[in-house]
Specification:
decarboxylase; orotate phosphoribosyltransferase activity; binds 5-bromo-uridine-5'-monophosphate; Rossmann fold; 17 helices; eight-stranded parallel beta barrel; 449 residues; TIM Barrel; alpha/beta; OMPdecase; elongated; six-stranded mixed beta sheet
Length: 449
């Protein structure tokens, strides 16, 4: 066994690669999952790895080493300690306050910087990282990467003139694990087949609404309505009197799949308003959606849902919930469809990557949840709802940020867009609703190709 093989088998024992069925963030099913973070749990392996990475570039001088959180951060730190080259850290995200820098550490413009990454796939995210480091005035020419998933990333970076050195390719990893009986023949065949498929294509594609793997009856009903009415528009009736809400509902009714309310802003809220809305919803075929944003323990949420003067449980087909109180707090919503809030549209929202992935995880495992609110792609098992849509303005003075229907359907693969002021502030609400309906549906159809 050579030292590379020895390293790989020990790393495998730490759990850096797992075999089975995994749904990746992009929604595609993969027969393996790679996570190099456990390497930091073995100082010996980390040291070996850092020496191997330094050897890939031992004929070059750099003024800085940059680690990208999280997996590459301990690697870059170890390389910095061995080589005496100072470390800088590229943030995962702007922290939204304080210095607002994307790169932390002591450096100045014009310095050369070696970038360290754990895994390279299509190269897209690595190019974004390089771009952010270069925007700080640093010179990036060389990159070292532990694992190449062989999905075109290395070539893409080389085309742009970067020198990329990788320690292992995924095919090599599979061959070594198979050679030392960590993988059976059939597992190897299955994985190689997966690797030979152009998965990038699959990643980019979105599922048509009718193929979404939604099991909740209200979710199914929503999909059915969307296909029937050729609409993915949810109108947000953020109005403060019953008369205004009813007038608005009547004007948009033909063009929407759901009417969203904030019942606690309606000053004269009454049972009669709900009676009228239910009647209209039945006749014109749309759902009633209460954007309550529950955010408490289950017991309190249950009382807010059933016992408040709004009697939400009596009429809402859909409710929004911040699942901050944990998965069990979602169980109280009976037959109403729950939409969790994974990410908010407003500037500086605290719903970062970490929170987002935790919400998705909770949502995928709780049958009462039929979808999520977010501003990015989610998997095929949940419906995606995206507010912050307006064709005329890019934001308001209170932090709201808008996108066009094209952006939310093409880039985020959203299923339903939520529009408030774009509709109710319009001089001709009915025409505006028709326009949003058409634009949304065209953007959705285009995003299928
Ligand atoms: P607007 O007028 O189109 O900006 O209204 C958007 C509506 O969607 C409004 O009722 C918000 O409360 C709601 N909303 C949002 O804008 N952004 C979010 O992230 C979430 C809800 Br969650």
């Amino acid at each position: 066994m050579n030292p590379r093989e020895d390293f790989l088998l020990k790393a495998f024992e730490l759990g850096i690669i797992k075999f089975g069925n995994f749904t990746l963030k992009s929604g595609i099913e993969s027969p393996f999952y790679v996570d190099l973070r456990p390497l930091a749990s073995s100082p010996q392996l980390l040291k070996t790895l850092s020496n191997n990475l330094l050897e890939l570039v031992d004929n070059k001088d750099f003024e800085l080493i940059c680690g990208v959180p999280y997996a590459a951060l301990p690697m870059a730190t170890a390389m910095s300690l061995t080589s005496n080259i100072p470390l800088i850290i590229k943030r995962k995200e702007n922290k939204g306050y304080g210095t607002k820098r994307m790169v932390e550490g002591v450096f100045h413009e014009g310095q050369t910087c070696l970038l360290v990454e754990d895994v390279i796939t299509s190269g897209k995210s690595l190019l974004e990282t390089i771009d952010q480091v270069e925007r700080e005035g640093l010179i990036v020419e060389d990159l070292v990467v532990v694992l190449d998933r062989e999905q075109g990333g290395v070539d893409k970076l080389r085309e742009r003139g970067y020198h990329v050195q990788t320690l292992f390719t995924i095919n090599e990893v599979i061959d070594i694990l198979h050679k030392y009986h960590r993988l059976t023949d059939s597992e190897k065949v299955k994985i190689k087949e997966f690797l030979n498929n152009p998965t990038e294509e699959v990643v980019q594609k979105r599922l048509p609404l009718e193929e979404k793997k939604v099991t909740h009856p209200i979710g199914k009903r929503l999909v059915e309505l969307a296909l029937k009415k050729q609409s993915n528009l949810i109108a947000s009736a953020d109005l403060i009197t019953s008369a205004e809400v009813l007038r608005f509902a009547n004007e948009v009714a033909d063009h929407i799949v759901a009417l969203k309310l904030h019942s606690d802003i309606i000053q004269d809220f009454s049972d009669d308003l709900i009676y009228q809305l239910k009647k209209l919803a039945k006749e014109k075929e749309f759902l009633l959606f209460e954007d309550r944003k529950f955010a408490d323990i289950g017991n309190t949420q249950e009382m807010q849902f059933k016992k408040s003067i709004y009697k939400i449980s009596d009429w809402a087909d859909l409710v929004t919930v911040h699942p901050i109180g944990g998965a069990e707090s979602l169980k109280v919503f009976e037959n109403t469809g729950v939409i969790t809030l994974a990410e908010m549209s407003s500037k500086g929202a605290l719903t970062d990557d970490y929170y987002f992935s935790k919400v998705i995880n909770v949502s995928e495992n709780e049958p009462k949840v039929l979808g999520c609110v977010a501003q990015r792609k989610i998997g095929d098992h949940l419906l995606l709802f995206t507010p912050g849509v307006n064709i005329n303005v890019s934001g308001d003075s209170k932090g709201q940020q808008y996108n066009t229907p094209e952006v939310v359907f093409n880039n985020y693969h959203t299923d339903f867009m939520i529009v408030g002021r774009g509709l109710y502030k319009s001089a001709d609400v009915k025409t505006a609703a028709k326009e949003y309906q058409t634009l949304g549906w065209i953007a959705y159809l285009q995003s299928l190709n």
